[in-house]
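To assess whether the prediction recovers the assembly geometry, we first specified each molecular entity separately, as shown.
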Amino acid sequence: MSAPLRAEAYLAPETLAQLAPFELRARMLVDGLGSGMHASPRQGQAVEFAEHRPYTPGESLRHLDWKVFGRSDKLYLKRYEQETNLDVVILVDASSSMRFGTLGSKAGWGGTDAGRTSLQWTKFDCAAAISVALAHLCLEQRDRVGMTVYADDVRATVRRSGAKGQWRSLVQSLATVKIGGVAQPARAIDQVLATLSARSLIFILSDFQHPMESLREALAKARFRGHDVVLARILDRQEIRFPLEGFRRFEDMEGQPPIEADAEVIRAAYLQELKHFDAELERLARSFNDDVLRLDSHDSVGPPLAALLSRREAAWRARRRG
Amino acid sequence: MNFLHPGLAVAALCAAALPIVLHLLLRRPRVTPWPSTMLLRLAMEKVRRRRRLERWLLLTLRALGIGLIGTAMAGPLASGWSGSRVTRDQWIVIDDGATSAERLVDGSTMLDHLKQQALQAIDALREADRVALVTTAQPATVLMQPTGDLAHARTMVLQLGTHAVRGDLRGALEQCLPAASDAITERRDVLVLSGWRRGSVDPDQPVPGAWLDRARNVTWRSARPLDAAPGNRFIRDVRVGRSTSEVQGNRDVPLASGSGAHGHHTRIRWRGGSQRRR
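The predicted structure of the complete assembly is given in tokenized form:
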């Protein structure tokens, strides 16, 4: 018996409305299998004119622009740009820390393993909402989208496809995957990279509550193979603001020894460490020309996603003009 | 350190322990699930040393605060560690009764010797100390209540003369002991200067144990015996024994004991009218 597809509830109409004006643009040239809206490295065979180039003796006269020759007596070749589709891969962290959430879940919301057991809107629920929104956007623009859910190993994989039923497959996978364990992003990224033959856009949705070193190596590999990566860091509001008070025993959800501390005493130091960690993640992403998206799981996913898409689209237009 | 209300001082010490007990026993943490303690651990490393120091400092200050309030309420009388600032009342009882004072020793009267010793005692006082004078010639009189005017005290001593009456040492002590024991100065000394003649002490009237007991915190001293007066007895470093409070009625009261100038032990018993040497 299949699990109920309640994760459909993650794709709120207002999120769709917020994302509607934007298109998900790849930063690099994409060598896709089908036709689409992304720039391809292949030129000369498509119908979209790109530019003129001076003729070099010995080249084929097939693409010579005779009209320009008639007007100016100079030889120019016409170049064409091919547009193709993009492969988008969404990596979703399903480690124990993603079970955390402090926003009470409302009726009709969510339906993931984390949300069902805690009755809270967890970070994994937020990641699921982003995933389905991105998938919807990609499928709308005829891109292929796939997904890998990971923790200490790969928990679930949905192969890349642009088929109509792909979105429901993603939703089904998110609704049924078991959440737990310690995140090993490097291993998951390695496994995903091994399956990618063309340049792709990779979204990594996680709280990144692990040392940066392992991630650095994985991102370096992705960059070396020409993939475009977006790191989406999802934190609960309580993690971001740390509004706790009193003497507390913090039980680590990923099995580390607990810590006892006065919340007021460590608040400033914790927020400083969080800021420092965020800056380090940002620096790491920038060093590979990757994007970073920060999300508060209590907020709607629409506005930050729209901001990301807008930023990428602006960069894409600037590249075209330049 | 002495207190007007020692019970309160003990209570203050107990109360000072209260914050420590609360700190150690009632500090129960609330369990809070947290996604990852990685950043918390880093934050803890930063604040741990500073926080530990602050916490113990705060605890010490709380305990000290309570202790100090309690100690202040208990009425401290002396600070044993600040010797240079010790103030004291020096009561000088001079036996100017005819039986003792008119005895000739080395060509001058016993009273002259006693006055010299009184002047030496006054000269030994410090600036913040006070002196009081009591004479024993019947009726025993407080010539001068405790005063810091040492020059005036010297004048008063020099003006003393012999009276043709017997001395009433008991009466003189009765005059000065209550006042001396009630004083709030850190030290209270009573210096008894007498020839210790039979007529100085009324053998039929024992020293009441009750006020001897009350004067526990008073140090009694007596004049050094004169070498030329072997019949003298003296009292030095007098400390009233615990048993004095139980001594009543016709029983002997061990007034004092000490070592004499020649190394022999002296005990003076008031009751029975004799001063025995052992």
